[in-house]
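Reopening this one. Same input as before:
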Amino acid sequence: MTSASGTAALRSALTRFSSSSGSKSSAASGSATSAVPADDSIYSGAGGASDFNLILEYLAPPGAHVKKGDRVAEFDRLNMLNRLDDFRVGLQDQENGLKTLKANIDIQKKAHRESIASAKGELDKAELDLKTIPVQSDIQAEQLKLAAEEARARYQQLLKEVKDQEASWAAEYRNAELDYKESAVEFQRAEANVEKMVFQAPIDGLVVMGTTFRGSEFDQIRVGDEVRPGMPFMQVVDTSSMIVNATVNQVDVDSIRIGMKAYVRFDAYPDLVLPAHLYSIAAMPQSGGSRLEYVKQIPVVLKLDRVDPRVIPDLSVAVDVVLESAGGTTMAPLESVFHDERTGEDFVFVRRGSAWERRPVETGVVNNVFAAIRSGVRPGDLLAAEWPIENKGK
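Same output, byte for byte:
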């Protein structure tokens, strides 16, 4: 036997979720409640060579309240710091080499200018010597002419070399300068990588630690663990704005819409029921992993309209989404409502003394568990959950 109860609204149990509460984040896998506006999962950095293993050296205590900018995690940076020192020394060597090259080029330029000045002086001397030809023998005159031609050719050749030499020196210096700038970029990247090994809290919130597979079971991540590149290992959640990550059966997903009201019940606190609304519905079903699944689940997100100090991330919850509501009605268990195929009438059996009285009822909205009774019964009436034996055939 079951009892009818009065209620102001009929909550549909059609889409009853089994989920966990925790932090909203694209990184988090599984279900949880958290701050909707922020995506504040903390990921491990990019992978590299085998000497850059992502081993956690420091972690903020799980459940600790942190402020924005506080250090919450740090990886072992010894190898990166050593590499950074090597980059710094190499960069300094390249900088000194660049200065040395510039000084050598300046020396070569000065030497070339001096060679031009010397050649000009020899040419001027040879041209003055040509003026003495009238008083020179024929042989000496020819020698003076040849000396003048040779001085002129050497001077002109040195002048022509100026442009090519300038281009050669500029190219040599530019090549060395580009090598230095490339090394400087590599040094800055290494410096940034070192800084990225230390994580600061992106918002004020509560530290929620991730889990990893240890031995034969999942365990909370702790100092000394090695994480894979891209693996979320911590979340900082804003407990003033929480969400629920859940899944709904593919059969029921067509019945729900974004914005629908819902009620969240917590397994840890049976007396706690918080209002919520449907925040988002995934476009694709949840991946089945290695197991073959014939019935798919659709991920959904609900936002709590009110929070409670007892609510913390990663609590398991159940959610009822309100598909329809009816005020001023009485709720009766669905198994207590019978239907007459001949007359199309709905009726119930109400206890009257030691007998069961068949009574017609007008039903309203119905779900998989309850039916709203508009008339025919009152709150507190005792209803038969199955057809009474003495009323068989009636």
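So the earlier flakiness isn't reproducible anymore. For the record, The two ends are 19 Å apart (CA to CA).
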